[in-house]
Amino acid sequence: MSEACSIHIGDDGSASLSGMLTFESVPGLFRKTEKLFQVITPVTSIDLAKVSTADSAGLALLLEWQAIQRKAERRLEIRNAPSGLLSLAQLCEADDVINMTGRGSQP
């Protein structure tokens, strides 16, 4: 059984994820956050420093969140991504659209 991925949302529009961002955890996380980008203080950044692992489902969720933000003419910054997630984004040629930096990267 995979570790669930949890989200903490600050009043300043920042959010952080912790746990495993995988096929097992993404559906539940998506259901929890469907309205996340439609609140008065929308999420503008997501910190992945506490994400232990992520797979293609995690990448798909992050891309979906980016698409929602673009549609609303807002920007979403994703920071501290695990190296495997960055590699996957590059492999899928999604690294130009996802606005994501890795752990130890400068914004």
Structure report:
The protein has one domain: STAS domain (Transcription Regulator spoIIAA). The chain has a five-stranded mixed sheet with strand order 1-2-3-4-5. The chain has helices at residues 26-33, 56-71, 83-91, 95-98, and strands at 6-9, 14-21, 45-54, 77-81, 100-102. The protein is α/β, with parallel strands linked by helices. 24% of the residues are buried. α1 (26-33) links the parallel β2 and β3 (45-54). The protein contains four helices and five strands. The mean pLDDT is 87. 35% of the residues lie in helices and 28% in strands.
Order of helices and strands: EEHEHEHHE
Write down the Rg.
13 Å
Q: Quick one: CATH class?
A: Alpha Beta
Number of domains: 1
CATH superfamily: STAS domain
**Mean of all residue-level pLDDT scores:** 87
Shape: globular
- Main β sheet profile: 5 strands, mixed
Strands in their spatial order, largest beta sheet: 1-2-3-4-5
Structural class based on helices, strands and sheet pairing:
alpha/beta
Low-confidence parts, pLDDT < 50 over ≥5 residues?
none
Known CATH architecture: 2-Layer Sandwich
Determine the CATH topology: Transcription Regulator spoIIAA
* Strand proportion: 25-35%
| Secondary structure: helix percent | 25-40%
Termini Cα gap: 34 Å
For the secondary structure, the number of strands is 5
**Tally the helices: what do you get?**
4
